[in-house]
Design brief:
Helix content is 32%, strand content 24%. The chain is built from twelve helices and twelve strands.
Length: 344
């Protein structure tokens, strides 16, 4: 990034540094998140991508300190530069700290993958959104109701007054997800974490939900951390991309760079796995599966599945560290320069 570009870049909102979240089990210590670092700037969307089992959701839960035993954050910083409350290291807060409750839902909100697990089946839609408002804002119930109805209209709920009194089971999956988005954004958070927000939806509803998140993001001015395995979604909405494998980041950079000139074999494999109507080629897949955290391979953890792995190099020592290829693009691969020019 040039000095002029650096000066014009938005300020950092979230800086995650060497975050480690481990699970202490009978099978041993499982490093679900193993020393990741990234920065999310104000107003931008960072997509955290990778296959299931790579640590994406554990990362998102760690940011809000929602990890349950036997898991816990063992080290690292989660520094939130809040415009309202100043700098907050979320990782250093006590579990019952009042500031942590202010962060959750007020400064940082989350859209979960399955809306039925995020909504109470015994409370109406309106009462649940109102509860979020009254928890974080000093206003009357009448004002909270008005804000709730306004947000339901913004997320495209036809007949907001009727929806206010409905229960989640009375709504379709797409409408429930709109309610979850309304609940997450009604307090105008500075950061929205969206964990696979469209996975359970059909393609038409998925496009509507993604568009809705983008529109509301611009209106509120929040940053978005998007957790997904779908690179088609990434191409539509992300500004920056971080690729995660077995608890570690293996590549990160601007979305254009990552989609056009990926350097890590894993990123390239993910891109080759995207169906296309334009190429006519056979759909590729990454051989094998993500190994268990109890059996992480030595050396580069991706080497057993990598066509570029070199015996005696990639299977020795510890995992490669992220190395800067440019001021905005980093990769953790010992052979990145040798395979750089191949086109996915």
């Amino acid at each position: 990034m040039s000095s002029a570009a650096a000066m014009s870049a938005p300020d950092p909102l979230l800086e995650v540094s060497d975050l480690r979240t481990h699970f202490f089990t009978d099978a041993g210590v499982l490093p679900a998140v193993d020393g990741i670092s990234f920065t999310l700037r104000r107003g931008r969307t960072l997509a955290l991508v990778g296959e299931s089992g790579c640590g994406k959701s554990v990362t998102s839960l760690s940011l809000l300190r929602l990890i349950q035993p036997p898991g816990r954050i063992v080290s690292g910083k989660i520094l939130l530069h809040s415009a309202r409350l100043g700098d907050i290291d979320i990782a250093a807060l006590r579990s019952r700290d009042d500031l942590l409750y202010l962060v959750r839902g007020g400064l940082v909100s989350m859209i979960f993958q399955e809306p039925m697990t995020a909504l109470s089946p015994v409370h109406t839609v309106g009462s649940q959104i109102m509860e979020a408002i009254l928890l974080h804002r000093d206003i009357s119930a009448a004002e909270a109701r008005a804000l709730t109805l306004d947000m339901l209209r913004k997320v495209g709920m036809a007949g907001a007054e009727r929806c206010f009194d409905q229960y989640p089971h009375e709504l379709s999956g797409g409408l429930r997800q709109r309610v979850v988005i309304a609940m997450a954004l009604v307090c105008r958070p500075e950061l929205l974490i969206a964990d696979e927000p469209t996975t359970a939806l059909d393609a038409t509803i998925q496009a509507q939900i993604l568009r809705l998140i983008q529109v509301l993001q611009r209106e509120i001015g929040c940053a978005v951390l998007l957790i997904t395995h779908d690179l088609g979604v990434v191409a539509q909405v992300a500004d920056d991309v971080a690729v995660m494998y077995l608890g570690r980041l293996v590549e990160q950079g601007p979305v254009r760079t990552m989609l056009r000139r990926p350097r890590h074999p894993y990123t390239r494999g993910l891109l080759r796995s995207i169906p296309s109507l334009n190429t006519g080629r056979r759909l590729d897949s990454i051989p094998g599966t993500v190994p268990s955290l109890a059996e992480i391979p030595p050396g580069c953890p991706f080497h057993p599945r990598c066509a570029h792995a070199r015996p005696g190099l990639c299977d020795r020592g510890g995992a490669p560290a992220l190395t800067a290829l440019s001021p905005t693009h980093s990769v953790a691969c010992l052979r990145a320069e040798e395979i750089a020019e191949a086109t996915p």
